[in-house]
Amino acid sequence: MSLSRKVCEPVLQEYMRSWASDDRDAWLALFADDASLEDPVGAPLTQGKEAIAAFWDRIHQAQMQMRCELDRIVVCGEEALMIFTVVSSAGDVSMRVRIADLFTFNDQGKIVTMRAFWDQRCMSMD
After folding, report:
1. Domain 5-125 carries which CATH code?
2. Which helix or strand (DSSP H or E) is residue 66 part of?
3. 104 to 14, 48, 75, 120: CA distances (angstroms)
4. What CA–CA distance (Å, rounded) separates 52 from 38?
5. Active-site residue, selected from the candidate residues 34, 39, 101, 107
6. For the chain, domain boundaries
């Protein structure tokens, strides 16, 4: 299978939109039932939709506003790389995290794997 940009790009744009707008159901709907998430790479693997939902809940429990700034999406074969920045703010404090996420997809265009590449050097305070 070789996915096209027309399949992957809308999924990844919805990924960012639903993350930033706190739309848990829409974000989870993008994943296959047996999907895995590794955020950041090297952290314990989050396997299956129930565990991915718990990951969402853990991140979104803080009362922060988030927005995503897309740099680019690169689609090669069955994988897509999304380079973007998440800007989180609470009150007067704002933090930026520059991230590169690597995705694989199934035949239905659902996310099967997501691996997030970021470390402390990717983080900055505004």
Report:
1. 3.10.450.50
2. strand 65-76
3. 15, 15, 10, 25
4. 10
5. 39
6. 5-125
Three-state DSSP class for residue 115: strand
d(CA 61, CA 110): 25
Q: Which of 15, 22, 25, 119 is catalytic?
A: 15
**Catalytic: 39?**
yes
- Measure the CA–CA gap between 116 and 16, rounded to whole angstroms: 13
Predicted confidence (pLDDT) per residue in 91-124, tens digit: 888 999 999 999 999 989 999 999 999 999 999 9
Amino acid at 36: S
15 catalytic per annotation: yes
Comparing CA positions, the residue from 109, 114, 14 lying closest to residue 68 is 14
Q: What is the pLDDT of residues 9-32, one digit of tens each?
A: 999 999 999 999 999 999 999 999
